[in-house]
Amino acid sequence: MSEPTLKDRIRNKTDHDSEIMIISKWDNEKIEVRSMMGSDRSVFMDTCFQESGDLDKKISIPFLIIGCCFDPTTGEKLFALEDEEWLMTKNSTVLEGIATTALKVSGLTTGAVEGAEKNSDSATPPDTSSSS
Known about the structure:
The protein is α+β, with helices and mostly antiparallel strands. The protein has helices at residues 6-11, 38-47, 57-68, 84-87, 92-105, 110-119; strands spanning 18-23, 29-34, 69-70.
């Protein structure tokens, strides 16, 4: 049996970051907030910003909560799209805290979001030439 290729080893890695949150307003329920995967982050960057470049919280908060919250016991997604309506009736401070944590574990702090927006059109691939 041959050794797995580098591509196979990378494909099989679990590489998300996460943070367990204890939500006091929800009777100390625990939720796992995981980082967005690459495809989710691309959709987030394309859909959750206003023309001014400001984060559209009406879109981004449910996107982050539905996309990044998991049951820490089972590892399964906690919410689905059909949960958005009732989720948005919950305490706004709690929702904002979860969304902020999702941004943080996804590497999208305010500075990172601004940097990603500025660099998205000017990104260049790494130098792949070798010097011998």
